[in-house]
Known about the structure:
The chain is 0% helix and 54% strand. By secondary structure, it is mainly beta. The protein has two domains: 1-96; 175-285.
Amino acid sequence: MNLADAVAWSGDGRRALFDTFGGGIAIEMDLTTGVTRRISVPNLFTIGYTSPTGANLVAVQDIVTADGTQTGQQLVRLDRAGKPQTQLAQATRASLRWLYSADGASVYLNGPGGLRVVSNSGGTIRDLATFETPDTDCGPVAWWDQHTILAECLETGGDRLWLVQAASGSAKPLTGAPGNGPVGAGYDNALQVGGTVFAEHLEGCGVTSVHRLSPTGVGARIAIPGSLSNDHLIGTVGGKIAIASSTECGAPSWFGFYDPATNTTQKIVPDVPAELGVQAALAFP
């Protein structure tokens, strides 16, 4: 388990998934007993749970030929032992990204210029929304509220966030266009506390900082007390933001809560010299 990162939490709150990032092995932990079991998924790229309870698994697998050439990816639904149930999507260029609807009936997918959607049973994939140019890959990030998907688009100048209505497909930008100026390389994640939006800003070389967004979609960096310079948004608890902070090299690191109202930080798992610290953190959906 020491070489595995937490990647998913079942909707019933009872199980967590860990990815070993190599060898096609995922690990499931029963959070009520601490018992773990290994799940073999060939050519595993990413893995998670289906909604709403986590009755099954969903995984992105690399499609690899006999000579080892990767030709694309497929999104598949598996049972909890790793046995394939149905293919949901396939791609030959962009990496597949997905987000389940709350009831588990639909799966939202990335696509050229917008989002796509497919039934949990598989079948025809249809376009949900197109709000960027066809050469721009857009994918779901998270649910912004019960009816709205936070989406990320990889534009030429960087990353831009959009809010997409799941029912109608109508979309509006949450952050400004990336490129020159204060937006820079753009934003790849966001959350809201009260009426304020906080976004994860790309600083380059894999480093991110937290910005407080203005109504125009342009942010100003927050100096989080105790920051190790590489800050990631994990979720919210009341009026506080869960933060994972590390050095640019990834270690040491800490996990805790930042209170925007008082500009204070509470470290739950502190950074300790000569230790890796927190490598991954998840908010319960």
